[in-house]
């Protein structure tokens, strides 16, 4: 086992079974069933604290503050919200549902930022009613709608303008979010970002607080953050010179890479904090102006490595390859309904036997699901023992982010439970779907 892809309390016991949070995975599978998302609370909290402390220290060296906002799209429950509250980390949300879960978990509204490229009136209205800390406006339409709603409610909307900086970073094209030809933000290159700042500053009912960007996900290059910061701070300085108003907040987004497989690299928070803070300092010196308050959003980098998914093996097949040799197909009781990332982003994962070790020779294997798609793959290529058999438990690490939140009922599958483990105890965070849940949503014929 390679430590970089597993949460910090995962270990293999003398009998070969994995333990996480001090609990044998066989006990978890027996109590909660499989598939099962298992979240290591100690690891989750430690990663949040690492971002909080490292970025506070790095930006503190320059005399300013950097707030950490947990990106709730990675994994959000009311208990996750409580962990972030305990760890003094804020939350960003991108829907009414995420907002309500964050509020239910006790996060003060003024520590919540609302994102979204197409926010509905009821989402904006609720955000204004509860008093969220920031609303990130993404279009001129939204500036006008939010202005009208704020005036109607007799309140003021604190806004950040989302800027498309043109810096390309991250992995799959679907998660790169700062190139021109896509749905997010207002273009720096075309002048739309500048015009949006002017409009937001002038709009009644809006309080222009700053600018925001997000350049992608799974980013390893500090240079990408450096270039994006330079462009953001130049925009800020140019707008200040034109309007005599210097926005006090600059949110640099997130997208910090994690290791999904043993040979993959992760972005170290300590190194990232120092290098990003120093890059910002250089950019601010070049652009001019006073130091703003900064924000970052490391959602996946907190949740992803803290989670694993447990599966039970069903069918095992051996298939001949065109180029010679064979592949072992290991079918599990989940699949694309509980991990969409492999089929959607061609994401790589690894897997291991979870309840035993084996002396059998290894076999090139593909872990697949039970759904009616040939693309229903969980792990494309991994070496597993050739004696993998029906009833074995498999563990797939680094699934804490985007597993449960992107899960579906495809083939009327039941979405898995989410369980937190810590100090030898487990606690249900999200219960498993039941057949009754499916039938309750179905409207029978009259």
Count of DSSP H/I helices: 12
Which structural class do you get from the secondary structure elements? alpha/beta
Helix content: 25-40%
CATH class of the largest domain: Alpha Beta
Q: Whole-number radius of gyration?
A: 23 Å
- Main β-sheet description: 9 strands, mixed
| Domain count | 2
Tell the overall outline: globular
From the coordinates shown, what is the CATH architecture of the largest domain? Alpha-Beta Barrel
Distance between the termini: 56 Å
Beta content: 25-35%
By CATH, the superfamily of the largest domain comes out as Alanine racemase
CATH topology-level fold name of the largest domain = TIM Barrel
The parts where pLDDT drops under 50 for at least 5 residues are 171-178
Kindly state the number of beta strands: 21
Overall pLDDT, averaged? 94
Q: Would you write up a description of this structure?
A:
The protein is an alpha/beta fold. It has 2 domains: about 5-40 and about 305-440, Lyase, Ornithine Decarboxylase, Chain A, domain 1 (Beta Barrel); about 40-305, Alanine racemase (TIM Barrel, Alpha-Beta Barrel). About 30% of the residues lie in helices and about 25% in strands. It has 12 helices and 21 strands. The chain has helices at about 25-30, 40-60, 80-85, 95-105, 120-130, 140-155, 190-200, 220-245, 270-285, 300-305, 340-345, 435-440, and strands spanning about 10, 20, 25, 35-40, 65-70, 90-95, 110-115, 135, 155-165, 185, 205-210, 250-255, 295, 305-320, 325-330, 350-355, 360-370, 375-385, 395, 415-420, 425-430. The strands form 3 sheets. Strands 4, 14, 15, 16, 17, 18, 19, 20 and 21 form a 9-stranded mixed beta sheet that branches. An 8-stranded parallel β-barrel has the order 5-6-7-8-9-11-12-13, surrounded by 7 helices. A hairpin with a 2-residue loop joins β2 and β3 (about 25). The model is unreliable at about 170-180 (pLDDT under 50).
